[in-house]
Specification:
It is built from one helix and eight strands, in the order αββββββββ. The protein is mainly β. It has one domain: Immunoglobulins (Immunoglobulin-like, Sandwich), CATH 2.60.40.10. It has a four-stranded mixed sheet, with no helix packed on it. The longest helix has 6 residues. It is elongated and about 40 Å long.
């Protein structure tokens, strides 16, 4: 059984659910999804959610970013880097669907 899981590749969302991978920087930034604390930027968070709109809020010191993301069935990624933590200022990465292969 463990061998099958190891060879299965990336985690897949359960039926009628979505996996949302959230990656933020810096590590001390706090992640909230739908008003509930989900951790910090120290690790990538993978959450199982119902498809539909979800509010992601990232707080770092006195700075914050809030965005409503339309989560679709399958696996999606969302990331945010606070400007003071970027090597070169650029637009934030928005949610993207991953290749299901």
């Amino acid at each position: 059984m463990a061998l099958l899981l190891a060879l299965g590749g990336a985690p897949k969302a359960p039926a009628n659910k979505a996996l949302l991978k959230i990656e933020v920087k810096p590590a001390s930034a706090i992640i909230y999804v739908d008003g509930k604390r989900k951790g910090t930027g120290a690790t990538v968070r993978t959450l199982t959610l119902n498809p539909g709109p979800h509010t992601i809020k990232i707080v770092h010191n006195k700075d914050e970013h809030e965005e409503v993301v339309a989560v679709k069935p399958g696996t999606m990624s969302w990331s945010w880097v606070f400007e003071d933590d970027r090597p070169n200022p650029q637009e934030p990465t928005k949610a993207t669907a991953e290749d299901p292969r």
